[in-house]
Design goal:
Chain lengths: ~400, ~120
């Protein structure tokens, strides 16, 4: 297939535009998406990519929320925003994937629900101070569910994810999770770009203020500000540049995005594992690299409990063996596969939008031999991993240029 | 306090069960997230189960009394639900992975008209 081959619209649909009191944003998106699929005689299972354009809920994981209603197939989801050009941007995203040969079929959805900006509850409060229960939302809840029907806040969700691993495997407990934090805080001392650069004993980590057991304060990433960027160039273009630029270029051997496929219980407690395993396996195959070949890994340690699961998810250790692996020192900077020598999210920080590019910066810097005091000696290939709840997982594998 | 909790003499949970593949969901549905089919029936879930995962939340959302135990429960006969483990000390010594629990209900809030919002939780069985 060449870049000149046309791309076709197979099916299309739209809802009537108006004010919908009885439908929410995802109802509208589902109506349009299912309509387009039905019109084209296609199924959600056949789509290789989903682009969801929504401006006012651009940070609300609209694509994944749509999947959770019409089909969680694990495909890459791009939530896009571009002011009034948002919908066209969603279409362009699917077009580029097909042009690139990364998709045969994809679906783009544009949706907005601006009428909800004047909430019924808000109006009532303005008229009088009286509060009366009224069911709302897809669960018909009359009061907030957070804290009443379990927790869906980040520290608790990732704590439950870690505890599930402890339930399923031997040798995993509070101490193993705490060791992750001890490691990453120790690593950060060598990184001048880290938000925090202080070392702590294992005891200090475990005795700290409990946020959501087993995650104590030092086992939770901080909030903060920051940015990161990468400039990407085609192979043809690179070879036209001066030798020094070619030598310092870092090859992107794998670039993968997944969303969370349906698994038992996944809409009750997010499954952060299946989509990571899938992304990692696709990346290893794309790059022709084995986990054992990795010289360093920067993974998504939003909470210490999460990192332990990702040793297993990224196949850095034996299946079920993450507890044993950290006990043996596997992920330390002088261990079998250095994990988060930057200090990780726990110590380096996590300005959300920046993190998924910052870990590429870190791996690239080591692969170039330019990481200074924290340099992993002789690093030639590394993996960068991020995961956003909703969910989506990005995995990249970077290699020394050899040019 | 939610549509999927049915009160009465024997409070229980109900789910939407996909007519095609049997996947269950507690929310209002557009289609099945597992297989894409569009038809559902109502399924009564078991009121007993085991703790698959838990956390003890100390730093809670505003207005939520802490510490409390949030848990993912494997319901007997199939299905998974999230809820609080109640009627037990919220400590790692008293709550354990794999412990048997059963559904219970309690008043969680009252509105200005005196209407009570009833929540479900799970207590040691």
């Amino acid at each position: 297939m060449s870049n000149d081959d046309p791309i076709w619209i197979l099916g299309t649909s739209m809802t009537k535009f108006g004010r919908y009191k009885d439908k929410d944003l995802i109802d509208l998106a589902a109506d349009a998406a299912l309509g387009a699929l039905d019109d084209g005689g296609a199924t959600i299972q056949e789509m290789n990519i989903l682009a969801a354009g929504c401006l006012y809920e651009a940070n609300g994981g609209v694509g994944q929320r749509l999947q959770k209603q019409i089909g969680q197939t694990g495909i890459p989801v791009y939530n896009v925003a571009n002011a009034c050009a948002t919908g066209a941007t969603a279409v362009r995203t699917v077009m580029m994937a097909i042009k690139a040969g990364e998709a045969d079929m994809g679906i783009a959805v544009g949706v907005e629900q601006m009428g909800k900006m004047g909430m019924l509850g808000g109006d009532r409060a303005a008229r009088s101070d009286k509060q009366v229960f009224e069911p709302s939302g897809r669960f018909g809840s009359v009061v907030g569910v957070e804290g009443r029907l379990g927790t869906n806040m980040m520290p608790g969700v990732f704590a439950q994810a870690g505890m599930e691993y402890a339930y399923e495997n031997d040798g995993v407990g509070f101490e193993q999770f705490a060791k992750v934090a001890q490691k990453n805080h120790a690593h950060s001392v060598l990184n001048p770009l880290a938000q925090y650069r202080k070392e702590f004993t294992l005891d200090e980590v475990m005795q700290g203020e409990v946020i959501a057991y087993p995650n104590t304060l030092l086992m939770c990433c901080p909030t903060g500000d920051g940015a990161a960027s990468v400039v990407l160039v085609s192979d043809e273009k690179l070879r036209s540049l001066p030798k020094e630029q070619q030598r310092r270029a870092v090859k992107v051997s794998a670039s993968v995005l997944t969303s969370d496929p349906w698994t038992e219980g996944c809409q009750v407690q997010p499954d952060v594992n299946t989509l990571t395993r899938t992304a990692a396996d696709q990346a290893y195959e794309q790059a022709g690299v084995d986990p054992k070949d990795l010289d360093l890994v920067e993974l998504h340690d939003c909470f210490a409990t999460a990192e332990l699961r990702h040793y297993d998810n990224l196949r850095l250790c034996e299946e079920g063996g993450a507890g044993d692996w950290i006990d043996k020192g596997g992920p330390w900077r002088d261990g079998e596969i250095p994990v988060n020598v930057s200090g990780g999210l726990l110590s380096k920080g996590h300005p959300i939008g920046a993190t998924g590019v910052a870990n590429l910066y870190e791996v690239a810097t080591h692969v170039r031999g330019e990481a200074g005091a924290r340099q992993v000696e002789g690093a030639k290939v590394g993996l960068a991993h991020v995961i956003g709840l909703g969910s989506s997982c990005g995995v990249h594998i970077l290699e020394k240029s050899g040019l | 306090m939610v549509d999927y909790l049915v009160l009465g003499d024997e409070p229980h949970l109900v789910a939407n069960e996909c007519a095609s593949c049997g996947a269950t969901f507690f929310d209002r549905r557009n289609a099945c997230a597992s297989c894409g089919a569009r038809d559902f029936s109502s399924k009564q879930m078991s009121s007993t189960g085991t703790v698959r995962a838990f956390t003890i939340v100390h730093r809670a959302a505003r207005g939520v009394p802490a510490p409390y135990v949030s848990a993912v429960i494997d319901l007997d006969g199939g299905g998974r639900v999230k809820g609080n483990v109640v009627n037990v000390d919220p400590t790692p010594e008293k709550v354990s992975l794999g412990m048997d629990v059963r559904l219970t209900t309690y008043v969680t809030a009252t509105d200005d008209d005196g209407n009570e919002a009833i929540a479900f939780g799970f207590e040691p069985a």
